[in-house]
TrEMBL record:
<feature type="region of interest" description="Disordered">
    <location>
        <begin position="1"/>
        <end position="32"/>
    </location>
</feature>
<feature type="domain" description="BZIP">
    <location>
        <begin position="24"/>
        <end position="38"/>
    </location>
</feature>
<dbReference type="InterPro" id="IPR004827">
    <property type="entry name" value="bZIP"/>
</dbReference>
<keyword id="KW-0175">Coiled coil</keyword>
<protein>
    <recommendedName>
        <fullName>BZIP domain-containing protein</fullName>
    </recommendedName>
</protein>
<feature type="coiled-coil region">
    <location>
        <begin position="46"/>
        <end position="105"/>
    </location>
</feature>
<dbReference type="GO" id="GO:0003700">
    <property type="term" value="F:DNA-binding transcription factor activity"/>
</dbReference>
<feature type="compositionally biased region" description="Low complexity">
    <location>
        <begin position="1"/>
        <end position="11"/>
    </location>
</feature>
Length: 155
């Protein structure tokens, strides 16, 4: 093949346009401008997502703090209730021991038995109230003199 045929063949190999230097520079400017617009838009999208995620993190931290506080209050309440249960168990054991002692003594007079049981329940109610007031002052307002008179003393 001759060199003229090769140049003719190579020029027909693709549909390449030949741009002038100005046209090429103009196309590059437009492509770069479009790229900058796309990049800025993508950057703004990422910044918006980051801001949203930071707010979500702050909200979750706040909710976590509240849940930690609630858990601490619940733990304190649990300890308080455990203490109250232990006090009531001691009181129950004392009352059962007293009832056992009374049952073994079997006082024949029924009126004096009720007086003893009333007095006994009064003693245990007073012990219980004293224990509750000492350990759990917030419960003391529930147990007024009327409550003692009506329920603990059987009046």
């Amino acid at each position: 093949m001759s060199s003229s045929m090769m140049s003719e063949a190579s020029s027909k190999v693709g549909r390449h346009r030949l741009y002038s230097n100005e046209q090429r520079k103009d196309r590059n400017r437009k492509a770069q401008a479009a790229f900058r617009v796309r990049r800025n838009k993508y950057t703004e999208t990422l910044e918006l997502a980051a801001t949203k995620n930071e707010k979500t993190i702050e909200d979750l931290k706040s909710a976590n703090e509240k849940n930690i506080q609630r858990a601490e209050v619940a733990e304190q309440r649990c300890v308080q209730l455990d203490s109250q249960v232990a006090s009531l168990e001691k009181l129950l054991q004392a009352a059962l021991a007293e009832n056992e002692r009374i049952a073994q003594n079997k006082i024949p007079d029924t009126s004096s038995t009720s007086d003893v049981s009333v007095a006994s329940s009064d003693v245990f109610a007073a012990k219980w109230l004293e224990e509750m007031n000492h350990n759990h002052g917030l419960y003391s307002y529930i147990f007024t003199d009327n409550y003692q008179n009506e329920f603990c003393l059987g009046k």
